[in-house]
Amino acid sequence: VNKHKPWIETSYHGVITENTEVVLLDPPLVALDKDAPIPYAGEICAFNIQGLESPFEAVVLNGTSGEGQLRARGLVDCEAQKEYTFIIQAHDCGSGPGGAEGKKSHKAAVHIQVNDVNEFAPVFRESEYRASVIEGKIYDNILQVEATDQDCSPQYSQICNYQITTARTPFAIDRNGNIRNTEKLSYDRQQQYEIQVTAWDCGQKRALQSVPVRIDVKPVCKPGWQEDRNKHMDYEPGTGSKQLFPKMHLETCGGPLSSARTTVELQTSHIGKGCDRETYSEKSLQKLCGASSGSTDLLPAPSTATNWTASLVTDSGRDSELIFRFDGRQAAKIPDWVVPQNLTDHFTIATWMKHGPSPGLRAEKETLLCNSDKTEMNRHHYSLYVHNCRLVFLLRRDFTQVDTFRPAEFHWKLEQICDKEWHYVINVEFPVVTLYVDGVTYDPYLVTDDWPIHPSQIDVQLTVGACWQDFSFAPELRCTRQLTAWCVGGEVKKPRFTQYFRGSLSGLTIRPGKIESQKVISCLQACKEGLDINSLESLDKSIKFHFNPAQSILVMEGEDLDNMNTAMRKVSYINSRQFPTPGARRLRISTSVQCFGEDTCITIPDIDAVVMVLQPSEPRITISGADRLIRPESDFRASDGIALFQDLHIVSTVTRADAAARHTARQPEVLEEIIHNLDYCDILVLGEELRPEEESLQVEGGALLGKHLDATNSTSGVSVYGVDSMSSYEQVIRQVRYQHWQPTQLAERRFQLTCSELNGRYTSNEFKLEVSVLRGSDPGEHISHIVAPPQYMQVRRPSMLHDLYPSHSSAAVPSAATVVIVMCIAALVVVVVLGIYRIHLTHQQEVKLEETAKEAGTSWDDSALTITVNPMENLQEPQAEEEADDEITSAESDDSEEEVDIQLPKVERQSRKGQSWGQISSTSAQKQQRVDWSDWDGSS
Predict the structure, then answer these.
(1) What is the phi-psi region of residue 937: left when phi exceeds 0, alpha when psi lies from -120 to 50, beta otherwise?
(2) How far apart are CA 369 and CA 109, in angstroms?
(3) Residue-wise over 373-407: b if at least 16 C-beta within 10 A, else e?
(4) Which of 395, 444, 683, 712 sits at 20 to 30 Å (Cα–Cα) from 748?
């Protein structure tokens, strides 16, 4: 009878090595039963493990003795789990076979530990290590390498040793992976070292792969901007913005910085008026910017009409508009008819000014603009002058305008007045005078009041570059100390100018009755080149930056060095001009650094660089159209005359540099058409000037409306000027009309058209047009192509004929008479082929034949190509033929030499086969017929 339960220990401790099956238990697994040796009741049949997740099982080795064994159901991994705990119970075999009514022992706890096997090798955390050192120093620790091991036990997972495997290297490594140099390194001897490092774990398993360690040797640290850059950078026009310092960074040699300030300056004072602006005239720029009309240009380009600037010194060689240099000896008197007469309280004075400090401790006044008495009293009514680097504006009214003590003199103290750089200066609106310098507003620091000027009958004189004064003295006047400058050798001198200006001026204008808006002022002084920042939105918010109005100076401030370096790499150069001025643009970078508690702790040297703007692809401006115009007399006498350039076309092409490089000997040159502005087109009369009593040449009224263009005409021609598109110029020039009231006296007129971009920097071809009068036409009747035959006929070719048949030369046509005969034969043969009836119906079919000729593509003027053969005329009389040859004019001869051998119809060529020029002439002399040139449509 099964009376007793099996008995086992209350707890077991076991050890199993990973990747093995048997667990070594302490104590061994044995179950005892007091029912022994009774069969079944005293035998042990099983050991049960509670916990399905346990990877172990217990088996009975001997049921009688109760011995058992604990085994792993699969491979045990220490790295996955180091320990296991579960419950085990023993079962006896019960009272009979099959374990019926078997009994269970109590539950025992089993604790199993998994022993590790050194199966993993050390692995380094990084694929490579980099560090830099300064030459001449011994470092205790340059950098540390670190390896790890995936084994689970401390013995096999810890790294016990590192080793440098590269031979003969000046470096050493300790057990913790710290690398140091064993000797002082020299930058001149070697700039970089590469060593291999390996590692061992505490089970003496070595890393499968060594790790490379690169150590850069740098020269002794010098604070400043460090970069791999070329100080000479090329800029190709039309490429937009280009980064200037893509790899630059600031080296501070480890100093504790609190802030850094960097200034990048684009030095362009050697280019025109401070930077690469559009080289249009000041008047054209004012139109482009929307400035108010009515301004008076006091410094125009010298010409017959504006001769007061002819004696001034110009700053030649600039790719910019006219600049006048004043050296203290030149000045200009403005004619009275130029001076604005209605200068009220609201007006604008604008100019470009470049001025430096004057020599001497107490410099004299330097006058830019002065309006003073012509004689006697020398009163200054208004003037703009510089005194001790102060800009002063004087405006005094007379008693007829105001009789109160009021502000009269306004002073500004600005650095720009004497910095020897170009500035755009505007002062407007009295009595609250506002000064704009480069678009920035400045208030006067000093305002002086004065009484109005007493009225007088003295005329005033407006001058530029000095002030007009009349030092006239009575003969008995003695030369005092104050007047010794004007008294030499007892003779009284009468100088006319004083207070000369020393500097440069350009675009000096006065606009009475109107003040300019801030938008117009900013547009007028805007620069077409400058500094820029790429991806401004990505700039760190801690960086503060500021541009000057011309964008030639950029100032950046920041506290974080990395952010400053990032901002510096975004600085770029941009030039928005389509055809920029080529040449060097100099750059200067200056930096100041502040440390904690100190004003400046590190000195950063300045850096100079150059941006070279390459030569742009030059445009080729081409004018095309009909070069010969023949009109009846009635058209010339019409009220609006004739339009000279109705089919005018202006195009501009350019050959790109990259496209030119791809050209080969077999490939023709390909030009790319571009769109840009013109600034003037001149229509000149060739030969004798126009006679105003008989003829006129002018632009049709209303043609200039809505355009930035003006026009002037004279007996020499018409000039259209202003900055506008080529299409606008085409529209205006197509409406230039020529009128002649007595066309019977007109032999011919020849005109020449040229256009320009950038004040003559790029000019077009010289397009010539010849105008002739069609004789014998009645103004009141329709002009027929079949007219009364003249005794001698004249054949002219259209200008396009030479283009259609370029292979023929003028040498192929012996004379004008021969050409006339050949044309007659061709017309006669065509008439024979088409039928006799076409001869009688020619006049009725005139309109239809003209339309047929147009559809065939001909662009000839039929009125000039009418061929008439008189059937009643006896061409066999040699005397009449000789007289006809004698009366051919020189103009006809010149034209006939340019005639092209026109291909005759097939029927005519067969009839001419085997005939010489003389035979053709004799044959034509026997045929008499009247033929219209329009009978042949040229299709054969």
Answers:
(1) alpha
(2) 112
(3) bbeeebbbbbbbbbbbbbbbbbbbbeeeeeeeeee
(4) 712
Residue 880: HSE in the Cβ half-sphere, 13 Å Cα cutoff: 8
The structure tokens listed for 393 are: 């504006």
Least Cα distance to 529 among 884, 865, 239 occurs for 239
How far apart, in whole angstroms, are the C-alpha atoms of residue 865 and residue 842?
16
The type of residue at 445 is Y
Length of the chain: 940
Chain center to CA of 480: 63
Q: Which residue has the tokens 């086992």?
A: 8
CA dist 351 and 417 (Å) reads 13
Q: Show the tokens assigned to 124.
A: 């380094």
Query: How are beta strands 313-314 and 529-533 bridged, if at all?
Result: unpaired
Query: How many C-beta atoms surround the C-beta of residue 605 within 10 A?
Result: 11
User: Which has the closest alpha carbon to 821: 740, 885, 729, 911?
Assistant: 885
Return the closest-CA partner of residue 500 out of 415, 385, 423. 385
Tokens describing residue 330: 């030149």
pLDDT confidence of residue 398: 65
Expressed in percent and rounded to 5, the helix, strand and coil fractions of the chain are: 15, 35, 50
Q: What is the DSSP string of 604-619?
A: EEEEEEEEEEPPPPPP
- Answer yes or no: are the C-beta atoms of 566 and 246 closer than 8 Å: no
Which amino acid, residue 378? N
Quick one: pLDDT at residue 534?
83
User: Bridge partners of 385?
Assistant: 367, 392
The pLDDT value given to residue 495 = 55
**Averages of pLDDT over each 10 residues, the chain, 940 residues:** 86 89 91 83 86 83 89 86 89 77 88 88 93 91 93 87 93 94 91 94 90 92 76 86 87 79 86 74 75 82 83 68 84 87 74 82 82 80 89 78 76 88 75 80 86 77 87 45 42 69 89 77 82 83 85 90 89 88 89 75 86 88 92 88 92 68 48 81 92 89 85 90 90 92 85 88 91 67 36 32 34 50 74 58 46 40 42 40 39 36 36 36 36 37
Q: Between β-strands 232-235 and 602-613, what pairing exists: parallel, antiparallel or unpaired?
A: parallel
**Residue 221 carries which side chain, given as an amino acid letter?**
C
Question: What domains can you pick out in the chain, each with its CATH number?
Answer: 11-115 (2.60.40.60), 123-218 (2.60.40.60), 224-270+531-613 (2.60.40), 282-472+495-525 (2.60.120.200), 619-656+671-774 (2.60.40)
Backbone angles phi, psi at 830, to 5 degrees: -60, -40
Contact 720, 680 (CB under 8 A): yes
Query: Three-state SS string across 139-196, please?
Result: CCCCEECCEECCCCCHHHHCEEEEEECCCCCCEEECCCCEEEECCCCCCCCCCEEEEE
- Cα 394 to Cα 448: distance, rounded to the nearest angstrom: 9
**Is the sign of the CA dihedral 230, 232, 236, 242 positive or negative?**
positive
pLDDT for 776: 64
CB-based burial label for 234 (10 Å; 0-12, 13-18, 19+): exposed
* Strand 211-218 to 44-50 pairing: unpaired
- Residue identified by tokens 């005409």 is 713
In angstroms, the CA 156 to CA 710 distance is 94
Q: Rounded CA gap, 326 and 314, in Å?
A: 9
Per DSSP bridges, beta strands 491-492 and 296-297 are unpaired
Is the Cβ–Cβ distance between 505 and 368 less than 8 Å? yes
For 97-146, the DSSP string reads TTTTT--B---EEEEEEEEP------EESSS-EEEEEETT---S-SEE--
Q: Using alpha carbons only, give the angle 632, 638, 640 rounded to the nearest 5 degrees.
A: 120
270 Cα distance to chain centroid: 20
**CA distance linking residue 559 with residue 258, whole number of Å:** 6
